[in-house]
Amino acid sequence: MMNKPEFFPIQSLTFDPDLQIRAKINDETIALYAEQMVTEDDMKAFPAIEIFYDGVKYWLADGHHRRAAAEMAGHDKVWAIVKSGTRDDALWGAILGNGKQGFGLTKEDRKRAIMLAIQQWPDRSNVMLAEAIGCCDMTIKRYRDSISTSTNVEVEKRVGRDGKSRPAQQKASQKKATTKSKSTESSQPQETSATNSEPTHSGSTEKATAKTNGSEPSHPNKDMKFVPHTTLKLIPQDSPHVLLVNLFEIFRKGFVEEMVVMAMAMLLEERGKETVQHILAELNKKYGRKCK
């Protein structure tokens, strides 16, 4: 087993389409890499591709573009590191590696990676898969819900990044059905023994007595007044940052930061890096704070 990068014969590799996380191979990237792989020393300038050996096959996990570029440049070997592991280990390695080497994942690449990961590891938590792929855990949940709805497959427990197994979160549709079922049960008339006396409704009796006497019943909270949270500020249309000020006032320390980070992660995924950079630049320009 190669504990450090060495040159590995390309013909000995096993290629599996499902271990390619990218939605498609980028021919321009391969050509660009090939131009920079004239010699073996040139290949060493690139990160080593990752291979997993299960005792029978050498599974190529991360580095499909670099492998193809080496072949295009006329090499029969590629700069690589070989690890001990199964095909499943190779898929996990591919998910961890892609997007961290070379060019980042596109929206289609990320969707493919998410679908492969959910189908292969339905028992792993949303957070664990999200950190591996590089997306928001709510995105994993959205895709997972769409798959489980179409296949009716549910997992009782999932493994988190700490290795511990915990009950899987119940879907909103299931929670609604459970709540409706409980509501139906509680609305059913309950049988009472003939020997039991009728219950006394003290509230109704007091109201009837008060009505007979010509006076309205006193409300227990009649003298209580609502006192607004005076530290909260009105939110002018042109000053959305006041919303954050109010959130800082209401929620626990750290919550708003987590919310902003999650919002930026979702914007990065849905709108792209340029949109996020533009927003941060505008924030810096408007409020004079350096945003990274």
Describe the 3D structure.
By secondary structure, this protein is an alpha/beta fold. The protein has twelve helices and seven strands. The protein has helices at 27-35, 40-44, 64-72, 87-97, 107-120, 126-133, 137-151, 172-187, 202-212, 241-250, 255-271, 273-287; strands at 6-9, 13-14, 49-53, 58-62, 77-84, 157-159, 165-167. It has a five-stranded mixed β-sheet with strand order 1-5-3-4-2. Strand 3 and strand 4 (58-62) form a beta hairpin. It is globular, with a radius of gyration of 30 Å.
Name the features:
292 residues, Conserved hypothetical protein from pyrococcus furiosus pfu- 392566-001, ParB domain, 3 domains, five-stranded mixed beta sheet, two-stranded antiparallel ribbon, 10% strand
